[in-house]
Design a protein that fits this description.
The protein is an alpha+beta fold and 360 residues long. Helix content is 46%, strand content 11%. It contains 16 helices and eight strands. Helix 1 (3-17) packs across helix 11, helix 2 crosses helix 3 (45-58) and helix 8 (119-130) packs across helix 11.
């Protein structure tokens, strides 16, 4: 099978067996395709579907997204995780409006200059929307290509990653690009997601089975090769849930860098003693007898395990008024925190615990 026929096989397979029902597949509007591509980074399709439509309902075009406050964008993103994507999404929309007159550039090279758009995402947008003959190399496509080619060079090394990009470029369709490029790009994604899976790939139903070198060798699960592994770490965070007589919780905006950057959260401390000291200084009380240690829980991030320990501290109204004007901090009731950008575990905690919290 020649390189063009490999592309043709993927295109044909995608038409009859691939995913063709997703909402972002029914358009060549770069705004909608871009939004879907950013949301789909490290997030499953089933999760993205609801967020995608809610986002479009709020921000139907790039101009409305660019004009929105960042907090409104983060609030709609809450629960998708990897919040830097939302911040870059907002910055990208503003850049498109300011530097490109509200129209996305039409080449992968130019798209890759925009905030939050890497080479693979740029290739997807330009392939889907403008039929440009450029490859993508997300995790699914990387797995398909390394297996078909038995590409065993270590992708932790940039020169090997560059070589795989070159192979990916060669495999792209060469004819009827208007129709073939979007379907080929989607087909490679679909193969990686449903057939050429990381474990127990179903090789016999793969349209590239006869030409897949890894399948012939019987070792597809050996690919791709990457020696550098993610180093996990763990932290314990103590969360101060200060609740006033109106059942509002005190929330602070996190710094613009680091975990939960730019989101609202109860104040975070490295240990119970630091939390206690801060709470007593901000809201002086006779003692801590009314404080309640809520059940701790684990929140798993890509590189880190967060052990979260919430402490509920009732605050009387007089003391609450003394600190309610702090910059980028606020008292928020259930209606208010629904409109704020909150990390998913914090939103779940507030919904579960504070709705039934007795008044202070």
């Amino acid at each position: 099978m020649t390189l063009p026929s490999i592309a043709a096989a993927v295109v044909q397979w995608q038409a009859s067996h691939g995913r063709n029902h997703l909402p972002w597949q029914q358009t060549r509007d770069p705004y909608r395709v871009w939004l879907s591509e950013i949301m789909l980074q490290q997030t499953q399709v089933s999760t993205v579907l609801g967020y995608y439509q809610r986002f479009l309902d709020a921000f139907p075009d790039v101009a409305s997204l660019a004009a929105a406050p960042q907090d409104a964008v983060l609030a709609l993103w809450s629960g998708l995780g990897y919040y830097s994507r939302a911040r870059n999404l907002h910055k990208c929309a503003q850049t498109v409006m300011e530097q490109w007159g509200g129209a996305f550039p039409q080449t992968a090279e130019e798209l890759a200059t925009l905030p939050g758009i890497g080479r693979s995402t740029a290739g997807a947008i330009s392939s889907f929307c403008f039929s440009e003959r450029v490859p993508i190399l997300d995790a699914n496509v990387r797995r398909v290509l390394t297996r078909v080619l038995a590409f065993d060079a270590d992708l932790a090394q940039s020169r090997n990653e560059k070589q795989l990009w070159e192979h990916a470029q060669q495999l792209c369709p060469t004819e009827n690009l208007h129709e073939a490029m979007p379907r080929y790009t989607q087909g490679m994604m679909d193969l990686g997601a449903s057939v050429c899976t990381s474990r127990k790939p179903t090789c016999l139903v793969c349209p590239l089975h006869s030409e897949c070198r890894a399948a012939r060798a019987g070792n597809p699960e050996n690919y791709p090769v990457r020696t550098r592994k993610i180093k996990r770490s763990a932290e314990s965070w103590w969360l101060l849930l200060a609740v006033d007589a109106q059942r509002r919780v005190w929330l602070q905006k996190r710094p613009q860098a680091g975990i939960w950057a730019g989101l609202y959260s109860p104040p975070v401390f490295e240990d119970y003693a630091a939390l206690q000291s801060h709470a007593q200084a901000a809201w002086p009380q006779d003692g801590t007898r009314s404080w309640q240690d809520l059940p701790g829980f684990l929140h798993v991030l890509t590189h880190k395990d967060l052990h979260l320990h919430p402490v509920l501290v009732p605050v009387d109204q007089a003391h609450a008024a003394l600190v309610s004007e702090a910059d980028e901090s606020c008292w928020a009731d259930a209606a208010a925190w629904a409109e704020l950008g909150l990390p998913a575990p914090i939103r779940k905690l507030l919904d579960a615990e504070l709705a039934c919290t007795p008044a202070a």
